[in-house]
DNA sequence: CAGAATCCCGTCTGATACTG
DNA sequence: CAGTATCAGACGGGATTCTG
């Protein structure tokens, strides 16, 4: 089978900002700067792009309240919530194994790894 | 909590070539060009880089047989196999939902999409 | 066969400044 | 507040050539 479309898709949803954004939206709708704050380390531009891409793919919905100052709320669609499951598992794996990976990484500068 | 190290790690293992490589190694050890062929669309350099990174992180082990012509075999370590689980779930999600995502994407073709 | 080295381009990403 | 516009550096990733 041809893996190109799949790997392209993986490259898109596997993107770290996408994963973080979806994960953060799991416990409810969030506003732009709120998201930016809790994700941490993401630039305003990257958050905008990530949200646009997610919205375009139908994973996140964007709701604008025509108030002053403007208020925009982002939330997961049903499809987005279904993606959150496997992404959460991936995050769990990272949390459980990041220490060992980093140990391996520093070891590899001294001797060849098994 | 600080999400930076986590998102960095996610960006590394979420990389499409990494996901494809680990997935392909799931059903047994593979040689370099064999991997390259079944992954499809990956350049020699990217496969080399991906395998080096995986080896360095202790997710893949590299075994060299000093024959002529040289033969190198890559296989998953225990840690690598544990990562394969969540990655497989992600791949399954892609397979199940790629059609809907692409439908959403074309529907939203209001302005420049990639 | 399994790479290493090199060149090169497009994309990602952050920083900064500006707007409705 | 929630963006858009622009610049610039880092990085991803392909193509090609060369070696043990």
From TrEMBL, chains A, B:
GO terms for molecular function: DNA binding. Keywords: DNA-binding, Transcription, Transcription regulation. Residues 3-102 form the HTH hxlR-type domain. This is DNA-binding HxlR family transcriptional regulator. It comes from Rhizobium viscosum.
């Amino acid at each position: 089978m041809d893996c190109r479309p799949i790997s392209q898709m993986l490259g898109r949803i596997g993107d770290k900002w996408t994963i973080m954004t979806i994960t953060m939206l799991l416990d409810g709708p969030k506003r732009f700067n709120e998201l930016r704050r809790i994700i941490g380390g993401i630039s305003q531009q990257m958050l905008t792009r990530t949200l646009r891409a997610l919205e375009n793919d139908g994973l996140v919905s964007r709701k604008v309240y025509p108030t002053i100052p403007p208020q925009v709320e982002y939330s997961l669609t049903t499809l987005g919530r279904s993606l959150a499951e496997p992404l959460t598992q991936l995050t769990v794996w990272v949390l459980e194994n990041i220490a060992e990976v980093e140990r391996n990484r520093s070891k590899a500068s001294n001797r060849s790894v098994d």
